[in-house]
Amino acid sequence: MGLQTIIENINKANLKSDIPAMQVGDTINVHSRIVEGDKERIQVFQGVLISRRGRGINEMIRVRRVVDEVGIERCWPINSPMIAKFEIVRQGDARRAKLYFLRDRVGKSRRLRDRRRGLGKTEAATK
Amino acid sequence: MGFSLLGKKVGMTRVFKDSVSVPVTVIQVGPCVVTQIKTPEKDGYAAIQIGFEDIKARNSTMPMIGHDFKAGTDPKRTHREFPVKAEELANYTLGQTLTVEQLKDQLYVDVIGTSKGKGFAGVMKRWHFKGMFASHGTERKHRAPGSIGGLCSNRGFGGGLAKGKKMPGHMGADRVTARSLDVVSVDAAQGLLLVKGPIPGPNRATVEIRPAIRLYRSKAKKVAAKAG
To answer: A-chain residues within 8 Å CB-CB of B13?
Structure first.
């Protein structure tokens, strides 16, 4: 067996199969597991997916939301067991792969157009 | 006394263990064949010699083919020996196969390999010197070692430079031991060993694996706790 195949087989065991087809620009809910002592609860983080980087086991996502005019960005490995679930809330229209320009936007210009036609701009990552 | 095995570095990846991402190096361990048993009577000391990785007979030499044939095995690429106590020799037989199963109960292992060669390297890369100023009138000497001392000796006076002065020179391609690496998992079916963190050498390099000796206190405690 080739050496690369061995690595791929190890990675396969750690890859998730239930990741929805999220694209950059989408507003998503990330259900992350939080362990406090022996208790476990789920925290939901809603925001705009502004970047996906890496491939396979190394893929990371970066999600941005704005609370009280303060931007918050969180990153996770997409295959991390600490994430229980992803949900797509809204599909946004993005023309580039990394939406870092949203960091400089204020007010209405922060919104992204809905990917479905005919719909106007919608507030990205509403509370 | 311990033992050692030979293996091949496969490469690095990450696994999620207890929900935490762990960087791992995958090592294909063995199967190693006992090719010679050295006894105090015959050789003056007790040791076990193992061979690893089949090669074509035409790539071996007649003496080595004969040597491996005595152990009842095909020609091997690499041979390595490790010392054992004289009374432990009875645990090994000529031609016996050692696999990754031997490492199953280990919490920590040492991995010995040959580091990647860096060629002729300057002092900044080789010894982590700071180099000189980028500006303030510095010209053509930004990565130079600076003063190396004069008229100095290790003791007394005179005699030129101190012995062992850190200078530019050949870097890498050395025997390096990565000590006390956590064993993340052992896959006996495929002969794979996953250890935490990097190990010396490029992918495909042959490495030596042995149970960890000289543990940190915290790691030694964990080993003692496991042994009960």
So the answer is: 7, 10-11, 57
